[in-house]
């Protein structure tokens, strides 16, 4: 794990912590009028929109500003009239402690918002959600007898010999692992370490490296990862099948942003941006091939 460092610039973050949070713990914020503009006074008190970011976490974030969260941060920065700066740290279990809640010796916190935390994540004050997605199957239809698979139910209906032979890549302790257990496919699972100590590991390796090379026949991953990396692979052509939650296995989650507990005004301001820039946010998500589901009705207010 590297030492936290700063990265600036207007163009300059989730899989491991997200997956751990979803796997291990498996609130929207205060509601304002739809389309409301953020209050001006808090924005004027800030010199920059300071974002906590993983530098190597596509499709969510990257040090060169090519991730979903980088794009959304730019939208928010323009709306606030502020430059966007980043404080980077590999997204592992200690990510929040080493970014959002890390107070520099004799100075202030280095960043003020995390873009991309699951609703219900209690290490931060969670805003209202800005998108909802689900886990997805990713595979090459021309391999392993998967030509006719167009829904998860089709997969389960494959001939027993074909189904038994499948090698299914999943991140350990994730909802995908639970899905394998529920359907009696544990022996098919090829586990991947969710919390690798290697800061260069990135979420899409399971697709770009092992699925493409034929080391596994199918991967079950968080939808934004599946959509983005399947679209990036040109050969073989890959199919992405969003999955629905089942009794005892929750596969879809609403994603929000996080600020420090007690920063009520800042949280409300971020929520105002989520509301007023919702169309732009959705356009970014679609650009990155994120499988989107409708957001649920507003939930109870999260703890400020």
TrEMBL record:
<dbReference type="InterPro" id="IPR001638">
    <property type="entry name" value="Solute-binding_3/MltF_N"/>
</dbReference>
<feature type="signal peptide">
    <location>
        <begin position="1"/>
        <end position="33"/>
    </location>
</feature>
<protein>
    <submittedName>
        <fullName>Quinoprotein dehydrogenase-associated putative ABC transporter substrate-binding protein</fullName>
    </submittedName>
</protein>
<dbReference type="InterPro" id="IPR022448">
    <property type="entry name" value="Quinoprotein_dehydrogenase"/>
</dbReference>
<feature type="domain" description="Solute-binding protein family 3/N-terminal">
    <location>
        <begin position="48"/>
        <end position="291"/>
    </location>
</feature>
<keyword id="KW-0732">Signal</keyword>
